[in-house]
Specification:
Blueprint: H1 16-28, H2 38-50, E1 54-58, H3 61-72, E2 79-82, H4 92-96, E3 100-103, H5 115-121, E4 126-132, H6 141-151, E5 155-158, E6 166-167, E7 170-171, E8 178-182, E9 195-199, H7 202-211, H8 236-267, E10 273-274, E11 289-293, H9 295-298, H10 301-310, E12 316-317, H11 328-331, H12 343-348, H13 362-370, E13 371-374, H14 382-401, H15 405-413
Helix pairs in contact: 1-8, 2-8, 3-7, 5-6, 8-14
């Protein structure tokens, strides 16, 4: 069976609503958001849905993260704590702002950072904590907020995969000091590329709006370029598509949740699998559907994923393959030319060198070795769910009957 894909129209919710708003933009002849109406209206509509004071639309999820980091304005060599299980687009902007990424460990089942690990990483140079709600499953925000409050540190929520997810009755993105969202092709709502940031903090709001538009003080009595900043504006064309997508967002999320619940019910009796679930008081919105595979029963993620692909189910064993800090950017300090900055600046200032030792991340190692990420989108039907569930059941029964755990344990130890 050919499954709907979020890479094309088969897995996305596009129709005449997007075309009508795009036609308005083309007919207006104004494609730039500084003179148009679509992006400004989009920001207001998002703010209303989320009950938040300020929303700023930007050109990508990476731009959203960068704008959030710029809002807190770290000094060179300050530290920002985040997750090693995320897209590099959430990490690289830390370095561009002169901050050094510090990675907390994750829970091996949810692959979200834990409050305990965050607390262990805090130093006098910690400037912010980034809580990434992976796969649409919220972090332990109460615990992370408690740690942050003890040290007076702001919390930035990375909600790229968690549109309309809730944690203790609040939408993620509104719990911390700043929320970041992505409108990339595969997200719950999409403009191909795009994003937005949100906050209730007036100082952060002004700095985010300035930073995403070259720090020019539009509307100020004596505007100037106040500080070093970039152009991360969203176009009116993207704003039009985003507005149509936003109107469908609740339906998209509820359809994903319904099919995921049906899928879970078909797999609950299978040995060696841990199925995704949200903590009490939280809601999962299923950007993707992660399976945790017990290597002692099923042999680990690689073999399980390969067997699923043979049966026509695309999947991503290990998700990102390795923790972010094991990428060449970090192992060779390939930042700005051959300088190794800001790591070398930290050393020159007489501060302790930052190193990333894989042994300090047992939850990350175990989680990546065991996770198999299944695709998920709003166009799945009961037939699609049944097909995927049948493949998972077949692979599970085949591998568990072989006693595959003997070979899987070594695979996980290798990380």
């Amino acid at each position: 069976m050919k499954l709907p894909s979020d890479a094309d129209a088969s897995g996305r919710d596009f129709d005449d609503q997007e075309l009508a708003l795009l036609k308005e933009v083309i007919n207006s002849g104004t494609l730039n958001c500084t003179k148009g109406t679509q992006v400004n209206t989009l920001e207001k509509e998002i703010a209303e849905i989320y009950g938040i004071a300020e929303v700023r639309a930007v050109s990508s999820g990476t731009a959203a993260c960068h704008t959030a980091y710029a809002a807190i304005d770290p000094e060179p060599c300050d530290e920002i704590i985040g997750t090693p299980v995320t897209d590099m687009g959430a990490i690289a902007p830390m370095l561009y702002q002169g901050a050094i990424p510090i990675f907390a460990d994750v829970d091996p089942v949810t692959l979200n950072i834990t409050p305990e690990s965050v607390a262990e990483r805090i130093t006098e140079r910690t400037r912010a904590i980034v809580a990434t709600h992976l796969f649409g499953n919220p972090c332990d925000m109460a615990g992370i907020q408690e740690v942050a409050a003890r040290h007076g540190i702001p919390v930035i929520e990375d909600c790229a995969q968690a549109f309309l997810s809730e944690c203790n009755g609040r939408l993620v993105g509104t719990i911390g000091d700043i929320g970041c969202f992505s409108l990339q092709q595969g997200k719950h709502m999409t403009t191909g590329e795009g994003g937005f940031v949100m906050t209730n903090n007036e100082a952060y709001a002004r700095r985010m709006r300035l930073f995403s538009d070259k720090a020019w003080g539009y509307g100020d009595p004596n505007p100037d370029h106040y500080f070093l900043a970039l152009n991360y504006r969203l176009t009116e064309l993207q704003g039009a598509v985003a507005r149509a997508q936003l109107a469908k967002l609740r339906g998209v999320v509820s359809r994903r949740q319904a099919t995921a619940a049906a899928f879970t019910s078909l797999l609950e009796d299978l040995p060696g699998l841990t199925l995704p679930s949200a903590a009490t008081g939280s809601t999962h919105v299923y950007w993707k559907y992660p399976l945790i595979v017990d290597p002692n029963v099923l042999g680990g993620a690689d073999g399980f994923g390969a067997a699923l692909k043979e049966r026509g189910v695309w999947c991503a064993p290990r998700y990102i393959q390795k923790p972010a800090f094991m990428c060449q950017l970090f192992t060779e300090r390939n930042t700005f030319g051959k300088s190794g900055w800001p790591y070398t600046a930290r050393k020159a200032a007489g501060l302790d060198e930052v190193t990333y030792d894989e042994a300090e991340y047992p939850g990350t190692r175990q989680g990546l070795a065991r996770v198999v990420v299944l695709p998920w989108n709003e166009q799945y039907t009961d037939e699609h769910v049944g097909f995927i569930a049948g493949a998972v059941r077949e692979v599970t029964e085949q591998l568990s009957s072989r006693g595959a755990g003997l070979s899987g344990a070594g695979s996980e130890a290798a990380g």
